[in-house]
Design goal:
Layout lengths: L2 H6 L3 H19 L5 H25 L1 H4 L9 H4 L4 H22 L2 H25 L3 H9 L1 H11 L4 H24 L1 H6 L5 H5 L1 H19 L1 H4 L5 H19 L8 H25 L6 H7 L1
Length: 296
Amino acid sequence: MNVKRYINITKPGIIMGNLISVAGGFLLASRGEVDSLLMIMTVLGLSLVVASGCVINNCIDTDIDAKMQRTCQRETVTGAVSITRALQFGLALAVLGFGLLVHYTNGIAVGFAALGYLVYVGVYSLYMKRKSVYGTLVGSLSGAVPPVVGYCAASGQFDAGAGILLLMFSLWQMPHSYAIAIFRFDDYARANIPVLPVAKGIAKTKLHIVLYIAVFAIVSVLLPLSGYTGLTFMVVACVTSLWWLFMALRGYRKNTELVVWARQVFGFSILTITALSIGMAFDFQALPPSLLVMLS
């Protein structure tokens, strides 16, 4: 068995991004009192669940991937890993991942992990991605689950902080994904996937990118305003999100190279969410002021 082929179909880049966000959510909720074993098992468990979702997605998308330049050499397309073996591998990863989460975390964390998995594999991959322009919106929910799982694993509850994370990461997914859809426009059109640029045009997609980033910028400062993080996070959130918004607005300049602009928006989206994940991990507050009042 070629191990590298199996690692490739788990989409390691996506796993790494989710690893950072789940750790950020966990450390935010821990407020300096970190249960190291619980954190390791939460990160490992969710990483395995995400890997499983990616593998199953590869199996579902074989026909689509074969038509796209970016994905036509995936192991599930070329036959380097058979669909049967990939499905078996993906299901094994799911059993291991959910097993760890069930054993070490709590029902809320497991519930959100299951929700994200079912939305991504069942709703998004099997139907919405292929049939609806709203596929990106539905998929954004599954993409926002990792930090919430981390947060709920550490806190044992879904509170305002978890709700802000869910909304913030969902909003971030939209311009991030739309930017990809612009610079991969030909691929999506060739595979007949109704992403916004293909279904509604580039102009409307640019507008949606700007609007989503603007709302994301507002929501991202709710964590410090609610007392969950401090001034450092506030500064990081404002600087990164406003610069990201400025970059998006540059798409309206004359003679803008569309693909270059979209790649820049995409690239800075990763920098933004990474900075915020790291920021909330280290600039947490002991307890939100509202909770201090309730407990006093």
